[in-house]
């Protein structure tokens, strides 16, 4: 079978993952990146299309009649017209839960950065401030313990559950807001606005849907404590970026840590770029080597399962 990999660069930017595993599955053509106007041409007569963010639209599927399978190097599948793929008999499979540990880890990297202020003190030491201190310990920047703080988690899939588990280990009070009532949940489950009101840390681990688009907005933020921090490692579209920037600049909340934005790569005119106490990382939470290796393993396993007539992780 012919396999077209449309944006391998997004998975393998450092060249640290070999393509041999993919090459065992068929005649593979590796394309580093695919602009929208070249999608159909780059797919050509391929039977299998693998991509991360490339849009697989109705027009693309109509232009490439050989497509039988679309495999995603991602959990999200909003870049594929799922309904039309089903009409065409095209199987679409994602790679769920590959990044659970990595995203939960980065969530706590943000939390610890805010609460322990390691970066601030490293800069102070390198600027000679400790050398000039009259006492043995120098702590002008306030720090705080996580124990006893309330961690409100929006979305309770595998990542949300892992974040809750880690927060509990730190002695945090866990509050959950989720679309469906989870079974056997040991934590307080409540609505979004109550979760926001209680939060010292409000973190989002929900998919981007019509219902979650723009839910981080001025109304939600008005329910938060001015001392609270907000984290988004889900999808940029859940944030109204102007509302969040205005809230940060006016001190309505203390800080925001974001790994995703509405437009990626980041637009130079995003209102969050210069917002106060806003830390932005370039969509890296999913990117540790072990995580990306696991991702490729899942994508290849999905193809093998489909070839054997038993598709797994099918989303349509």
UniProtKB/TrEMBL annotation:
Organism phylogeny: Bacteria, Bacillati, Bacillota, Clostridia, Eubacteriales
Sorted UniProt keywords: NAD, Oxidoreductase
Pfam family, one: 2-Hacid_dh
Protein name: Glycerate dehydrogenase
Start and end residues of each D-isomer specific 2-hydroxyacid dehydrogenase NAD-binding domain: 109-285
InterPro entries, sorted: D-iso_2-hydroxyacid_DH_PdxB, D-isomer_2_OHA_DH_cat_dom, D-isomer_DH_CS, D-isomer_DH_NAD-bd, NAD(P)-bd_dom_sf
Organism superkingdom: Bacteria
CDD domains: 2-Hacid_dh_4
Gene3D superfamilies membership: NAD(P)-binding Rossmann-like Domain
Annotated family: Belongs to the D-isomer specific 2-hydroxyacid dehydrogenase family.
Residue intervals of the D-isomer specific 2-hydroxyacid dehydrogenase catalytic domain: 23-316
Single annotated GO MF: NAD binding
Tagged with keyword NAD: yes
